[in-house]
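Hey, can you fold this?
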Amino acid sequence: VGVYNLCMRMLSIPVGMLTNALGEVFKQRAALDYNEFGTCRNIFIKTLKLLTVFSILLLVFVSIFSKVLFTTFFGVEWEEAGFFAKILVWLVCFQLVVSPLTYVYIIARKLLENLLLHIYILLSSLVIFVIGFKLTTNFKYVIVSYVINYCFVYLIYLFRSYKFSAK
């Protein structure tokens, strides 16, 4: 839990700042375009491309340097956190790209679907952790399953948000 927590905090802090900054710009422009023209697809695609570039850069950086960074800043006993960062960075990268774009759910008034996806996330995460820890003592498999599941949900959000970006 400590390794997971440290990895997520270290990965999420810079990503959160970037997501918040770009997300605010996207929200304002997307809402304006959607209400005025019935579509916000242009700003959606521009934002998607920009966030994808940042995401790829983060993925490459963490994949190359995570082990060195965690041992340098936190000590040799946190070397395993560098390994987990390489797994969790996928989740963070999907989050970086998709989270701001899901504002389209609010603009298009698709709140019920959003709620259902959140319920799925809650239930599936619960199942992954409960069953995962009962079936194996290797928590790496559980974390990988969790990341794959979350990335799957983010893909659903991305495709549905794209669909909703035009009336």
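Oh, and this one too while you're at it.
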Amino acid sequence: GRSGLNFSWLHRSPRYHLIDPAPSNIIDMVVIPKGYYLAVKRWLEDSTIPKPIEPTPLDLRTSYNYLLDNKMISDTIVLHPGKIKLLFGPRASSQLQATFKVVKSPNTQLTDNQIKTSIVATVRNFFDVTTWEFGETFFFSELSAAIHRDLQNDISAIVLVPTVRTNLFGSLYQIFAAEDEIFMADIGADQIEMVSSLNITNLNMAQQINQTILNVTQNTVYANTP
């Protein structure tokens, strides 16, 4: 090491402030401001509105400075901006875009447009921020149950079909979120398609079956090759 060095550390602090050079608790908080959340909802409902700008850590420190003032002396609070993970619609990631295929009940009195409007409302209510936690996993079975509950006499079946052909049917029935992400549905009438029945064509399973047959055929050829 080094020796013979003169070292002096000077720090002036107001008498009502205490200095702790070694905080023992580091508290990470993920925050989505209400104003930003509502702005994203309006943006999804009206395409003419520009996309809201995500808040920065500095914005959060400015808006929620009272949290820092009221913390314990031994605590350090780190504010992280939360992220909204969009599902289904064109503003979502291509791998998360999908179409709801719906079979209408023969006993319903509703038109196709009325059913679509009701499904859109149910899906948006399902993803209300007050019912979700950061990092929570989405299960389509839960959403499907909510839709059937609200339209129990109007639809016979509903499935979620990925828009991207490379995604297998059922691949979006369970979607994970990161620890700083929360889901929101980008959905409108364009994401809902009324079909007379469910088959391999409208479920986009024909390509999967053809690829499976091709793989089996190739493996058989390779196995018989001397």
